[in-house]
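In pairs, describe these two lines:
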Amino acid sequence: MKCNKCGAEWKVDAGRSASITVCPFCQEKIAADKSGEWKYFDNTKELLEYVAAEYGNDALFGRKYFSDHSAPLMPQGQKNLVKQAFECGAVKAIQDNVNSDQQHKDIAVKQAVGKLIDTYASAKEAAERVVWEFTNAIGWAMQEPTSKPQNRNNQQNVTVTQIKNVNNPPLPPQNSGLDSLMQLASICLLNGDWQEAEDYYKDVLKLSPQYAPAWIGRLCVDLKISKEEKLTTVDNPNTLADHKFFKTALQFADSGVHPLLTRLLVRALLTGINVAAEKKAVVEKAEEKRRIADEAARRKRVQAAFDNACKIMDAAQIPDDYRNAMAAFGSIDSIYQDINTKIMNKVAECKRFGQEMQQRYDVDYEVWREKTQQLKTQYDAQYKQWQIETKEIKEKSKTWKFQGLCIHCGGKIGLFGSCKECKKKENDPLIIKSQPSQPNYPPEPYK
């Protein structure tokens, strides 16, 4: 392991790194990020740079995941400035110009500084400093203001003094019995006697309601955690940071307790960003999966329409069938280059095959028409001849009957009413030639 503050390095057994919270060389409080690397933030500038580098601009500019969670980690003066930068729109002005040219970036910086000064009457140097820290975190090449913030240790002392001076009574003296009660509570906590530990911590708070370590103890009791150090290893630090006892302890924290709360809030911030990134990744993965499914379904519909048009083309028997196939291919709404190429080739084939079939059809139709007309002319002549012959036979039969002759052959009628020549009687039907039958016309081509 390596301390980012003093640069010291040391080795630990596997599985014990999570329990180490203090550098053994410089005694500085340290915390691990999601990758296991140990980080120490000396000021707001370092924290902004780290969040931007590890979690991107969305986390840096996200008030929910950055400002609210990381505000307790900042010195009081810088914390207020960062909060004001979010509220007055200074951070938004920078965010809107992340990808702009240098001229617009310069304008955005001036607008951000102006918003802080106009809205909160902030000092120009302080406004320029906090705006520069945001632009520096996202990699803008802006000149750093000449004034620099105090380091974290000095600012923390100022904050502690302010906390103690705002209606906060001094910590009770050592001989008040507070230490004994706290030791008894810690023993009960370690043994898992939650109710007894709770009673001891309540007794401490009766003596000093604003004693932060007692509120930390009540937090451990409520979460059934036997040691305060184990608070930094809870599964969901976001829920821990929202706990009422944690908030109360943070409100009254002194220099001895504040490092523990700081580590908890760092973990809450990092975990919150990780959870948001995981949720975003899940949503993006679901959207990508749905997009792929929609795309596959659309391609399947296009392919089915193409296959149906191919069936129409393959079953074509007459030129109109090829025209119908061309219309089917033309109605396909495709955005796929490979299918569009196939459609163009099929349309060209339909056009060529249709033209060839139309030419054959025209020749065959002309032959069929001539043959059909010839057969019809022959039939008409035969039918007309049959009508003439039939009429002649009927007229002769009528004349012979009037003359008293045989209606069949014109011969003389015998004694018994029979013709002496054809032996037929008058009542026998006339022999008339049968009507010609319709010719067997050839079928029309492609019908």
